[in-house]
């Protein structure tokens, strides 16, 4: 059997600087078999070089995964990660997030929650998710507000245990409020 170089790349082509971001993307992306990781790594690199923010790609992967779960999409109909990136389908899952400034996260984010959360996550992950939230209340309870449904869903599903560790004994709510146009 002859190997076709385009289908089976010899090495990943993922720069070291993008390894952590791609790992978050891969973890957020819906599981599909097969889903060639090396090809997805190359497309991830190309998308970032073309101007996409790595954190936005992670956010879009989470949005797509939420849609796949909500719709009960069968394995054969889940788009390969490489195709999702190559065809810029991630843009469909960002919507108003495309205009939000994300860029590289600073070493010490300027956000009300950061001092309590820095023991629980790195700055880039914090800014990708909590950087898009407004703290409405932080005394007797913690109330967060975001205009992004994907962000609210991800925080509720994946980061609530970390919030409970950072703010023990306080009720925690995350509200989604649609942006009025």
Distance between the ends: 57 Å
C-alpha geometry: globular
Radius of gyration over all CA atoms, rounded: 18 Å
Number of helices: 7
User: How is the quaternary structure best described?
Assistant: single chain
Mean pLDDT: 82
Number of domains as seen in the coordinates: 2
Largest sheet: 3 strands, mixed
Strands of the largest sheet, in order across it?
1-2-3
Q: Assess the beta-strand content as a share of residues.
A: 5-15%
How do the SSEs run, as a string of H and E? Answer: HHHHHHEEHE
| Low-confidence segments | 96-106
Structural class: mainly alpha
Salient structural properties:
181 residues, mainly alpha, GMP Synthetase, Chain A, domain 3, 2 domains, 3-stranded mixed beta sheet, 7 helices, globular
Describe this structure in words.
By secondary structure, this protein is mainly alpha-helical. It has two domains: 16-95; 114-176, GMP Synthetase, Chain A, domain 3. The chain is built from seven helices and three strands; from the N terminus they run ααααααββαβ. A three-stranded mixed β-sheet has the order 1-2-3, covered by helices on one side. Strand 2, helix 7 (149-166) and strand 3 form a beta-alpha-beta unit. The longest helix has 18 residues, at 54-71. The chain starts with 18 loop residues before the first helix and ends in a 5-residue tail after the last strand.
């Amino acid at each position: 059997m002859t190997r076709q170089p385009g289908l089976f790349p010899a090495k990943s082509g993922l720069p070291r600087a993008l390894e952590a971001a791609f790992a978050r993307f891969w973890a957020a992306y819906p599981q599909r078999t097969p889903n060639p990781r090396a090809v997805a790594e190359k497309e991830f690199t190309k998308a970032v070089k073309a101007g996409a923010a790595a954190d936005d790609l992670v956010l879009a992967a989470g949005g797509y995964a939420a849609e796949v779960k909500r719709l009960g999409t069968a394995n054969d109909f889940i788009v390969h990660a490489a195709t999702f990136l190559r065809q810029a389908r991630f843009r469909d899952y960002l919507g108003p997030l495309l205009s939000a400034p994300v860029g590289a996260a600073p070493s010490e984010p300027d956000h009300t929650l950061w001092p309590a959360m820095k023991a629980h996550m790195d700055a880039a992950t914090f800014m990708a998710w909590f950087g898009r939230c407004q703290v409405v209340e932080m005394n007797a309870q913690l109330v967060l507000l975001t205009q992004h449904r994907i962000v609210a869903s991800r925080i509720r599903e994946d980061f609530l245990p970390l919030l409970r560790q950072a703010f023990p004994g306080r009720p925690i709510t995350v509200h989604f409020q649609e942006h009025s146009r």
